[in-house]
């Protein structure tokens, strides 16, 4: 039995094939804090692969609040929210988040992934429908896999396809359209106004995953629904603390009844330990800073606009990005690994995104901005990208002569 399992697992050679070429880019150990510069292999590396959009993970006030919470409450809660794992600061944070995103109520989960697993597996039943954008995050897909409902996907951001799919569903069924607010690899923003119009027309509800939108778009960074002034039209808003909010954990916000239902049905909440005191305190402190220092979000967008200008002037293909997530399309798996490796050796960290995560003709470098980057760091990274494309011979350049 054991032998058979090992034989089966030994057939997995994807990672070894990349290792054999000396190009393996995953699980790179970082020997310093996550900031705009990190230390890898004793070398200074510019970080353009982080989700810490506001650059708050090393903020002294957040670190101080985290330490204080550990002193007061200890290092862990040793139980689920449902039983012995609820602290007063969990409730404080829930109230604060509900207000921030404009909903009646919210509940915390220990990761954003668990929010989508727990919520999507319980909110609809056998005769209902979950309708997804094909590029929705893996946690949404997996949550739907755990649901008894029927799952339908429409082509990315294609409102005609969404209407085609909605129009043939039974009128009496519950239908929930579930979308990313900002798509995590492509960086484009969901077409929420059109989705709201279609949801009204066909009697569907809407859930938005704001993992990459919180702290980035909307009033004071309060997310996608706020960005479009459509908060009342979105039924459920989830997000994570692992990106702009500099911590770990996640939440879902909605009306009182829906949140109460989720608290008594979502298994990844009820049967998993609650967020640690330190994680909760760091989110509360991050929210204080976002409120007190709106210039951080403005700087994130200045940096984004500056990087977009430099990159598009050089002919890089950034797809349809509208956010600090810039997909730099290479459209060739092998060259994407080679460019990532060249950049790592040259002192720039970016994330390669290759098939099967995206179709092989869509492989890309995921280049993401932080509020704490300087223009000089962005210039250095772009110069090194230009050199990497030349050395590797990437031809997916719009104005090729500029790169040669
Ligand atoms: N949704 C989206 C769109 C994400 O990108 C992620 C994280 N990559 C998650 C959910 C899960 O969040 P967490 O990291 O808190 O598990």
TrEMBL record:
UniProt xrefs under InterPro entries: Aminotrans_II_pyridoxalP_BS, Aminotransferase_I/II_large, AON_synthase_class-II, PyrdxlP-dep_Trfase, PyrdxlP-dep_Trfase_major, PyrdxlP-dep_Trfase_small
Reported cofactor(s): pyridoxal 5'-phosphate
Domain Aminotransferase class I/classII large span(s) in chain numbering: 45-385
Keyword Disulfide bond: no
Keyword Transmembrane: no
Pathway it works in: Lipid metabolism
CDD domains: KBL_like
Alphabetical UniProt keywords: Aminotransferase, Pyridoxal phosphate, Transferase
PROSITE patterns in the cross-refs: AA_TRANSFER_CLASS_2
Molecular function via GO: pyridoxal phosphate binding; transaminase activity
Pfam families: Aminotran_1_2
Family: Belongs to the class-II pyridoxal-phosphate-dependent aminotransferase family.
Descriptive protein name: Pyridoxal phosphate-dependent aminotransferase family protein
Originating organism: Mucilaginibacter segetis
């Amino acid at each position: 039995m054991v032998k058979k399992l090992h034989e089966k697992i030994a057939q997995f050679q994807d990672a070894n094939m990349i290792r054999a070429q000396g190009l393996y880019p995953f699980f790179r150990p970082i020997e310093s804090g996550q900031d705009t510069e990190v230390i890898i292999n004793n070398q200074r590396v510019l970080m353009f692969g982080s989700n810490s959009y506001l650059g708050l993970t090393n903020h002294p006030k957040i670190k101080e609040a985290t330490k204080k919470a550990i002193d007061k409450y200890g290092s862990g809660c040793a139980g689920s929210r449902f039983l012995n794992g609820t602290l007063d600061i969990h409730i404080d944070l829930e109230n604060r988040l509900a207000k921030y995103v404009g909903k009646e109520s919210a509940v915390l989960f220990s990761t954003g992934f668990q929010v989508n697993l727990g919520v999507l597996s319980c909110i609809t039943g056998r005769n209902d429908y979950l309708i997804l954008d094909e590029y929705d995050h893996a946690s949404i897909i997996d949550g739907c896999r755990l649901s008894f409902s029927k799952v339908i996907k429409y082509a990315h951001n294609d409102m005609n396809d969404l209407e085609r799919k909605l129009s043939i569903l039974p009128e009496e069924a519950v239908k929930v359209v579930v979308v990313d607010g900002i798509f995590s690899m492509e960086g484009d923003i969901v077409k929420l106004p059109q989705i709201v119009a279609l949801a009204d027309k066909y009697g569907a509800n809407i859930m938005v995953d704001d993992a990459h939108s919180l702290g980035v778009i909307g009033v004071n960074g309060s997310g996608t629904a706020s960005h479009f002034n459509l908060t009342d039209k979105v039924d459920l808003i989830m997000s994570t603390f692992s990106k702009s909010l500099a911590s770990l954990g996640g939440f879902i916000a909605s009306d009182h009844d829906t949140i109460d239902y989720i608290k008594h049905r979502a298994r990844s909440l009820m049967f998993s330990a609650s967020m640690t005191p330190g994680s909760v305190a760091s989110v509360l402190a991050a929210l204080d800073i976002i409120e007190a220092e709106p210039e951080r979000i403005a700087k994130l967008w200045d940096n984004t606009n500056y990087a977009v200008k430099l990159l598009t002037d050089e002919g890089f293909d950034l797809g349809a990005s509208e956010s600090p997530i810039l997909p730099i399309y290479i459209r060739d798996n092998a060259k994407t690994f080679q460019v990532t490796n060249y950049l790592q050796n040259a002192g720039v960290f970016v994330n390669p995104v290759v098939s099967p995560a995206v179709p092989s003709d869509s492989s890309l470098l995921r280049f993401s901005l932080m509020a704490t980057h300087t223009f000089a760091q962005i210039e250095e990274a772009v110069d090194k990208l230009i050199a990497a494309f030349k050395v590797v011979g990437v031809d997916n350049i719009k104005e090729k002569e500029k790169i040669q």
